[in-house]
Amino acid sequence: DEVNRIDDGAAPVRLAPTKGIHIVLPGLGLTAGLLVTHPADGRVMFVLPWLNRTLVGTTDTFYDDRPDDVAASDDDVDYLLTSTHHYFGQRFTRADVLATLVGLRPLLHRKSKDPSAVSREFAVFRSKSGLWSIAGGKYTTYRSMAETLVDKLTGELDISLRDSPCRTADHRLIGTPTEDWSTFRESELRDLQREVGIEPPLATHLVDRYGRRARLVLATNRDSALRTQIVPGELDIHAELQFQSAYEMACCPSDHLLRRTRLGLFHPELLAADLKWPTAGNCGTLTP
């Protein structure tokens, strides 16, 4: 909406963002995710095993302030804790919350008093000046959104491209195997343990995070020291930092700790520590 108002000061409001938060709690011993309904209002929620911990979410409330200021409130956290206690009988407090995750859903503006009733569909708009915008949607429809917009753009910019539609539907994400995921995962875990000599928990961690590129993480540097844990008790290893720097454009501590791994959520002291981080040309271990 802000960008559209730069283009046209009279542009209508397109979005009605809603805020959603998750909380991270200590592990509850789950081996599968659960779908539950909140005891107060019946809203659907998920309780998921995540990084040896438990992820609980999500909320859905209208949000009118600046996106830069979005944060989990005490009421948000208490809402999720109430549901957790209802189903598991453990009375967690705010002090037990290891981390909070918060984001905004860019939903289309609709006259509704119920945030969860607002459509998750998306729409494409073209202004009089030729500015194309896309609004609404969600993570699970991002490819469909991209395809719709790309096809509209190519049709307008170059008539010769109209017979060459967007190919995202057939494009595999980086690290995706060509065979069925379950088949690949089972065979890759077995082969990594046998051929590379790593323990099952580390093999599982790397394959689930990197897919086909798990081997590349281990092959980036065969120094055995790089296969040691960054933080005792966490599966993340030093070789991942080197890989992230060389292949995933990680440039600073927060890239590694928050955007490539989640260590910064659970060990925030690392973000402020005076540590040596690998770069594409200097892929050493993480040391004080």
Low-confidence stretches: 281-288
Strand content: 15-25%
Overall pLDDT: 88
Order of helices and strands: HEEEEEHEEEHHHHHHHH
- Tell me the major beta sheet: 6 strands, antiparallel
Q: How many helical elements? A: 10
Oligomer: single chain
Determine the fraction of residues in helical runs and give it as a percent range: 25-40%
Return the structural class.
alpha+beta
Radius of gyration: 22 Å
How many β-strands, per DSSP?
8
Please state the overall shape, judged from the principal axes of the Cα atoms. Answer: globular
Query: What is the first-to-last residue Cα distance?
Result: 45 Å
Describe the structure.
The protein is 33% helix and 15% strand. By secondary structure, the protein is α+β, with helices and mostly antiparallel strands. Helix 4 packs across helix 5. The termini are far apart. The model is unreliable at 281-288 (pLDDT under 50).
